[in-house]
Request: fold
Amino acid sequence: MLLKDFLRDGEKALEGLYPAAEARSIMLLLCEAIVGTKSYTHIIEPSFTIPHKDESTLLEALRRLSEGEPVQYVIGRTDFCGNSFKVTPDVLIPRPETEILCREAIRTGSRMSASRSAFGKDAQPVRILDLCTGSGCIAWTMALNIPRCRVLGVDISDAALEVARSQTFPGSAPGQDFRPPVFMKADVLDPETVFDGGPFDLILSNPPYVMDSQKAQMRPNVLDNEPHLALFVPDDDPLKFYRSIAAISHEYLAEGGEGLTEINDLLGKETSEVFSAAGFSRVSLLKDLFGRNRFVSYAR
Reply:
C-alpha cells in the first residue's frame, strides 16, 4: 500500500468529521506515529510503500478515527510544552491554552528559584501544587522546567493518577536538579482534604469549567470520548471548583506566593471575583491566543 494512497483514502474517510486541512493533519500525525514518516514523505517519495507489518495497525487506527475517536487517544500520546505525553480516554487531551498557563507558571517559578539561588545548598525549593492534575501535564512540565522544584499533583480519579504517574519522556534528559512530581488522590471539593508538602509557592489548576449547557456546542470527538468528570460543571453552580481552589489557596499558598487557574471565558469577571472576595491581591484576567479571558492569576 502506497503512503500517498493511504493518506488520500484516510482523508476521505474523515471528511465528514473534520475540515479537510485538519483531516490531513490527523492522517499525517497517525503515519508519523506508527510508520515514522514525515509530513512531506509522500511528496518527495511518491512511491513510498507502507511496510507490511504496519498495514493492519494503520487500518485499525483509521477505523477508530472514522468513528470519531481523537487521534491522540488512537496513538496514545500528544505533544505538550515540548514533550510527548501519554494520554488515554481516562484523561483530557492537553490543549494549547494550557501551554500558556505553563509558560506563565514557569516564568514565575523560575524567578522564585533564581531569587533563592544566593542561599546555595540551603535554598528552599519552589513548591508547587497542581490541582485536578489529570494526565499530569502541568505537574511534569513544572518539574522539567523549574530547577529543584517540588511538585504535588492531585486528582480524584485513580485512572488519571495512574496515567500521570506513568509518564516517561524518551529522549529527554532532565538536569541533575530534576525531581519527579508526587501524585496523590484527593477531592478538591472536599474541605477536609489535607495537602502534604505545603505551604506552596505556586498553586496551579485546570479544573472542570465547561457548563452542561455548552455541551451542544462541542464537537462529537470531544463530547463522546473525553472524560466528562474532567470537563463539565452544572449550570446552577459553575464556579464550585474555583471557590474550592480559592479556599485551598487561602490555606496553603505561602506568603508571596502566586496562583494561576484556567477558566471558562464566559465567566471571567465572576471567576476573578471569587478570588478577590477570598482576599487575594493582584487578581487579574489573562487572555488566550484568541483574546478570550482564559486565566485568573492571584497572589498573597
Observations:
- Residues 107 and 183 are 23 Å apart (CA to CA).
- The two ends are 61 Å apart (CA to CA).
- The chain has a mean pLDDT of 95.
- The chain has eleven helices and eleven strands.
